[in-house]
Design brief:
Helix content is 61%, strand content 8%. The chain is of the alpha/beta class. The strands form two sheets. A five-stranded mixed sheet has the order 4-3-5-6-7. The chain has a two-stranded antiparallel ribbon with strand order 1-2.
Length: 463
């Protein structure tokens, strides 16, 4: 029996090693196509600022100091033209660290095939995409997983350290204080009573200290938090987009079927279910807060996957994992924004493939906008492309064009209303589709259609 157990452990470890190698291999081609989504380019801009010795200030409220400072250190030793390769690689390595930790957690929870939940988690499209970008979500997820694992191993000092790093990567990680305390530290089945009080104090103090640091860095984020919680939101449209980014249509339909068919096979209630129920509550709150941002929920996904893996077993877990992986390659019923309006594609390239192509397009669009022949005294509303444009203008290859733009009074302002210029150009797609159409219908801007809109360099007046 012991030999069988040892062989299974060896086989599982070998499977993990193969997966790590393949995951690294899959992502290598995408490390050099840019930082990722526009907010990742803001991280790149802030890294250059830190690397130039201009100090730290949050690039986005409330700030992500652990990630931003790490990228700033890289900017000190890497040229701006190649910085995104190294920031993306650092995120990928952090993701692989999280992968090994999640594998250990799956074994701790007695999941018979621990490699299956690892596959399921790390091939969720929004996670697979973020693993090759310079965003902060996977940093926070990895540090939370390590903190969770160290609490399970009764190593409170190290657990608190990684919990602090998680909060420093994303402030929302602090809400895990409650499930960590109630579900783990105060649970004598998991954590010894003699260590509970000291660990409780350490965790609470860490949250208070990090909250004070965030307040010191930027007092505005409390106002932004209030501003973002606006009811009603378009939860139907956002929920559909969320579904495409996470499980895809086939995976979601399969899960819905399992809820009806396999409801009675959910294991009996225990401390694990209590902890997972609390993280599910966090999942719901984060969705209500920003339903249009699936990446915000990345730190919660590992615990949701643990729930699924404890519930669906054998062929059912294999089918769900296969459907999740398929969503990276082929997607069904995808809504897209085009100059002709919103279109529905019954079948298209997978969410992941589309996302990586979009990352390449960000650079092409920004290059097009920088080199576009504007008249003198022009302001250009670039919208979400703004950080990409600003970053490219810092590269040596664009310095001559930058001088020409300055000489002719052409600017790419963050706030369009603060600039007084004779001409105003609006880049199509600067706002969500419906808002943009309504906004442009009442104004006479010149609209630029960049390459990603598939209309080339067409320009027309909007009456």
């Amino acid at each position: 029996m012991s030999q069988i157990k040892e062989y299974k452990v060896w086989s599982d470890q070998r499977s993990l090693s193969v997966l790590i190698f393949l995951y690294l291999l899959f992502h290598l081609p995408f490390l050099g196509i840019g930082f990722g989504e526009p907010d990742a380019w803001r991280n790149g801009l802030n890294a250059l600022k830190i690397g130039e010795g201009l100090g730290y200030s949050p690039n986005r409220i409330p700030g992500f100091p652990v990630v931003e400072l790490a990228f700033g250190f890289l900017a000190m030793v890497v040229s701006p033209e190649r910085l995104w390769v190294y920031t993306n690689l650092s995120t990928l390595l952090i993701a692989l660290w999280g992968m090994t930790t999640f594998f250990k957690i799956a074994r701790f929870h007695n999941i018979s095939q621990p490699i299956v939940p690892v596959l399921l988690l790390y091939f969720i499209p929004v996670i697979f995409i973020n693993a090759a970008s310079s965003m902060d979500n996977l940093w926070a997820m990895t540090f939370l997983l390590i903190a969770y694992w160290l609490i399970l191993q009764v190593k409170p000092n190290r657990a608190v350290l990684f919990f602090i790093l998680a909060i420093g990567s994303r402030l929302t990680s602090a809400i895990f204080l409650f499930p960590f305390l109630i579900g783990l530290v105060w649970n004598q089945q998991v954590f010894p009573k003699k260590e509970a009080m000291r660990t409780t104090v350490l965790l609470i103090v860490s949250v208070i200290a990090m909250a004070a640091i965030y307040l010191f860095l930027n007092l505005e984020f409390l106002g932004l938090l209030k501003e973002n919680v606006v009811i009603p939101r378009d939860y139907f449209r956002s929920g559909y987009y969320f579904m495409q980014q996470v499980f895809g249509l086939p995976g979601t339909l399969f899960l819905a079927t399992m809820i009806v068919w396999q409801w009675k096979k959910i294991p009996s209630w225990n401390w694990e279910w209590s902890f997972l129920a609390m993280t599910a509550g966090i999942f719901g709150l984060l969705f209500l807060y920003r339903p249009e941002k699936p990446a915000y929920l990345i730190p919660v996904f590992p615990f949701f996957v643990l729930f699924i893996s404890r519930w669906l077993k054998g062929n059912l877990s294999y089918i769900l994992t296969g459907l999740i992986i398929l969503n990276n390659i082929i997607s069904f019923m995808v809504v897209q924004n085009t100059p002709q309006g919103l279109t529905l594609s019954w079948m298209s390239k997978g969410i992941t493939w589309e996302s990586f192509q979009r990352s390449e397009q960000y650079v092409k669009d920004a290059d097009f906008l920088i080199r576009f022949p504007y008249p003198q005294e022009t302001k250009v509303e670039t919208g979400w492309r703004h950080p990409v444009v600003l970053y490219l203008l810092k590269l040596p290859a664009y310095q001559e064009r930058k001088k020409e733009l300055a000489k002719n009074g052409i600017v790419f302002p963050e706030n369009l209303g603060k600039e007084n210029k004779r001409h105003t150009y609006w880049v199509f797609g600067a706002m969500p589709y419906n808002k943009e159409r309504q906004f442009l219908s009442t104004r006479g801007y010149q609209i630029i259609y960049p390459p990603s809109t598939q209309v080339g360099s067409e320009k027309r007046q909007v009456r």
